[in-house]
What we know:
Elements: H1 3-10, H2 17-42, H3 51-69, H4 73-83, H5 95-112, H6 116-136, E1 147-155, H7 160-171, E2 172-183, E3 188-197, H8 203-211, E4 216-222, E5 229-230
Helix pairs in contact: 2-3, 2-5, 2-6, 3-5, 5-6, 7-8
Amino acid sequence: MPEFLQAQFASAQAIPPLEVAIRLLMALALGGIVAWIYRRARGDADGMSSFPGTLVLLSVLIAMVTQVIGDNIARAFSLVGALSIVRFRTVVRDTQDTAFVIFAVVVGMAVGASSPWVAFIGIVIVGAAAFLMRTTQTPAGGAGSDLFLLKLRLGLGHDLDGTVATAIDAHVSQRKLISIGTAKQGIAIDVSYEGRLRAGKSPEELVKTLNRIEGVQQVEWVVPGTSPDSF
Length: 231
């Protein structure tokens, strides 16, 4: 091993176990506050029920990583190499969700680096900003219209923007295309839309209407935070 790396490892100072435990418990508590702010500020915007729990775990894990690294350059490079093999396959659907991920990471880093006041002050200011942005947002579709995900499977050769889109728009407000791709070895198309029901409309009515359209092979109605229910 090169001499400069040996010097870095030799100079590492162990943190007392009690202090490690206190920092991790503080990161757990502050991560819980971050998750609570996310729940209150974002409402039903997130379709993943595990996301708030992930924010809590991120705070604790980053606090652990920060303590492991300390001021040791060699450990920093080693952990970067070790963590580079990690791949996350779940896509964060909203830019504000990405901001909350960074929020949890910074809180964990602050606690792990013995700067709890940075975490406390950051939680107050960022939390206030998140609540302020929530109050300035206008809900789509009006009161009582819950966010949902609509998944369709359409036979190849049928017009997605014709009868199908017209039927959806008659029941749904502010429809947004989430994903589109082929299925059944290219003989069908899977499409996902996000939106909110119009006043007086029901999921059953929308699904029945779509099922009566020629070419529609499958319809799924997904409520955020639950498993898909196929009709």
